[in-house]
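Input structure tokens:
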């Protein structure tokens, strides 16, 4: 295999020959040292050039970002808030989001957008404040249901229930609100007759919605009607197969019906899809040991999971 030729190698060879011809071995040694220094400087020069090019690119990106922020200040403020929130700079994020709100005249939709960023970061108190401002700005805004869900995460169940009921009072055919309140009762195994009425109505409005089918199936299970529950839960899994909670519900119902092998498959998928899903691992271990999941199935509030 031919040896690589490094920069300066050819010069060194020529210098050696010239030195031999002229009878000047000292000159040859000086040329060799000089070319070795040149070889050592070459990678350093290359590194400096790359660092300089990187610095130029960063500068150009920064200038471009600054120009974009001046042209579109509201999206820039929102983006800054997201970055600061991810970095743990809560005060800086709040300030950036406040600029975003002011630039959007503090509209209800802008409060909902900010709330969605707080929800993604699990800053539930801040999300609740933003959604409260949204419904104060527009009492008929659909964000009221989302506010109820945030209240649940804060352990404020009474406020959540009242919020859902307020939505349904104003919009009795809001399938989303009907489903959320019906599932709220089903999870807690309370007011199950009312839950079933709410969820049947929601399914009439959205007959192909897998989430509503899951809620209805779970309400039926919690009431002890396992056969009817299985029909709804199996149909739900067909429509939303990637939801761990839906797989958990189906697995629990299958175990109660005596279909142990199928139950283990569904419970295993539930744990795989959502390793932190409350009750999933416990149900899987119970069925593995030959036991049955509880009926009604216990509910763990989100506030207690943190």
């Amino acid at each position: 295999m031919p040896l690589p030729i490094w920069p300066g190698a050819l010069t060194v060879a020529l210098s050696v020959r010239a030195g031999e011809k002229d009878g000047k071995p000292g000159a040859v040694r000086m040329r060799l040292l000089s070319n070795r220094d040149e070889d050592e400087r070459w990678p350093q020069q290359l590194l400096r050039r790359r660092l300089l090019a990187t610095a130029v690119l960063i500068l150009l990106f920064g200038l471009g970002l600054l120009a974009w922020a001046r042209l579109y200040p509201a999206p820039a403020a929102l983006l800054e808030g997201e970055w600061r929130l991810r970095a743990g700079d809560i005060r800086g994020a709040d300030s950036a989001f406040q600029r975003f709100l002011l630039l959007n005249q503090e509209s209800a939709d802008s409060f909902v957008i900010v709330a969605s960023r707080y929800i993604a970061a699990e800053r539930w108190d801040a999300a609740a404040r933003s959604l409260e401002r949204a419904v104060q700005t527009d009492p008929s805004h659909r964000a009221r249901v989302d506010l109820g869900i945030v209240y649940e995460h804060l352990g404020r169940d009474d406020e959540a229930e009242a919020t859902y009921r307020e939505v349904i009072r104003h919009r009795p055919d809001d399938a989303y609100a009907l489903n959320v309140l019906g599932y709220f009762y089903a999870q807690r195994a309370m007011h199950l007759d009312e839950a079933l009425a709410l969820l049947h109505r929601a399914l009439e409005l959205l007959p192909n919605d897998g989430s509503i089918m899951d809620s209805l199936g779970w309400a039926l299970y919690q009431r002890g009607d396992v056969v009817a529950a299985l029909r709804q839960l199996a149909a739900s899994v067909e429509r939303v197969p990637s939801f761990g909670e839906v797989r958990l519900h189906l697995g629990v119902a299958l175990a109660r019906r005596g279909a142990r092998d199928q139950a283990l498959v569904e419970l295993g998928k539930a744990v795989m899809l959502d390793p932190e899903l409350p009750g999933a691992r416990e149900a899987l271990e119970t069925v593995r040991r030959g036991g049955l999941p509880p009926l009604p199935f216990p509910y763990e509030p989100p506030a207690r999971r943190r």
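The radius of gyration is 33 Å. The chain is about 80% helix and 0% strand.
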